[in-house]
């Protein structure tokens, strides 16, 4: 069975936990109980079959970084459970829309880079799953990314 090709929208604390979790559990025994996971294996897929292929954010301190570095950048402060090796996935400038509320605008610097063509990247990277980790209240942005997928 092949991998599940995943793109992440919003490289915040939830994305950091997901990326770390996939790295941490990549060699987990499917027959054992693993804290934090309901299933190490789901059908024919093991945790190690999750392959991150793209990431989007609007934070100037994350855009352009390798995903492994971006998960610890800027205001991210989730618990570190493991080191994540370089992924080769550059965080690309996403579309802001309503994805930066008042709090975020006061705490981060929005990237001045031009937003990328999300649809083309999803096609080029042959993304199977787009994970939306946008801040609560990002209704227009969430709809935009859903339509891109």
Instruction: Supply the CATH superfamily name.
Output: NAD(P)-binding Rossmann-like Domain
Q: Outline the low-pLDDT stretches.
A: none
CATH architecture: 3-Layer(aba) Sandwich
Order of strands in the sheet with most strands:
5-4-1-6
Main CATH class: Alpha Beta
Named CATH topology: Rossmann fold
Structural class: alpha/beta
Helix-strand pattern: EHEEEHEHHEH
Percent strand equals 15-25%
Helix content: 25-40%
N-C termini distance:
23 Å
Biggest β-sheet strands, sense, barrel: 4 strands, parallel
**How would you describe the shape?**
globular
What does this structure look like?
This protein has 149 residues and is an alpha/beta fold. The protein has one domain (4-148): 3-Layer(aba) Sandwich (Rossmann fold). The chain is built from five helices and six strands. It has helices at 13-24, 67-70, 102-107, 118-124, 139-148, and strands at residues 4-9, 41-42, 45-46, 50-57, 91-93, 129-132. The radius of gyration is 15 Å and the shape is globular. The two termini are 23 Å apart.
């Amino acid at each position: 069975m092949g991998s599940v090709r995943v793109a992440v929208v919003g490289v915040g604390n939830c994305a950091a936990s997901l990326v770390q979790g996939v790295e941490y559990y990549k060699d987990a025994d499917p027959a054992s109980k693993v804290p934090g996971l309901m299933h190490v294996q789901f059908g024919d897929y093991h945790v190690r079959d999750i392959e991150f292929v793209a990431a989007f954010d609007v934070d100037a301190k994350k855009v352009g970084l390798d995903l492994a570095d971006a998960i610890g950048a800027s205001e991210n402060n989730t618990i570190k459970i493991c080191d994540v090796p370089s992924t080769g996935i550059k965080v690309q400038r996403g579309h802001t829309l309503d994805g930066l509320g008042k709090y975020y605008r006061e705490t981060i610097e929005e990237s001045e880079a031009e937003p990328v063509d999300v649809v083309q990247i999803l096609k080029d990277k042959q993304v199977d799953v787009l994970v939306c980790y946008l801040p609560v209240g990002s209704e227009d942005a969430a709809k935009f990314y859903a339509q891109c997928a």
